[in-house]
Design brief:
Helix content is 64%, strand content 2%. By secondary structure, the protein is mainly alpha-helical. It has a two-stranded antiparallel sheet with strand order 1-2. Helix 2 crosses helix 5 and helix 9 packs across helix 10.
Amino acid sequence: MRMVYFCLTIPFLIVAKLLKVHKNSKFNKDLENINSLIAKTKLDLDNEILHILLVAEDHRVNSHLGIDHYAMLRAIYYTKFKKEFQGASTISQQLARVVTGRYERTWLRKLREQLLAVSISRKFSTEQISTAYLKIAFLGSGMNGLNSYLKWKKLTYELSTLEKVEIIARLKYPEPLTKNNKWSLKMKIRISNILSKLEKSLPTSL
């Protein structure tokens, strides 16, 4: 499977390398910002929360190099033929999106995000990328990043498994300024789904 993903990723790697030739381009500036963030982020999160993150958001991480082609094709199918929006972003892509601050739903933005993702995936480990993402990910109103959510009261090592799942669930459904029944129901379903995946999964190699 990894070899298949690698072959499918080769065109993206070539394009990303060509874009790096233009040192002062916006692409390179964004890549430098992402690289800098990952490099300076301390790896102080416990393995369990990183495992939960990957199971919930990127369970084929050990097969791909920044782009989950299967998830991408599935998302295209559901969007085009069933009119249902499905996410297909890997953790690397999600990190690139947050750092660049680009959220427009266009194919050009998605391609650019994928090129940034394959670039950082070749340079950094899954643990480094995942940790950097959790440190800046939007978890709800006034909660930009894990430290902001925890408010320095606890380390992730001190959290229960359920508390960690609740954090990861907020990546898909950020907490609103005022909690409501609709958000609470979505969170309940998301938490249940993640717990179910955890029961079926083996520990993810970082």
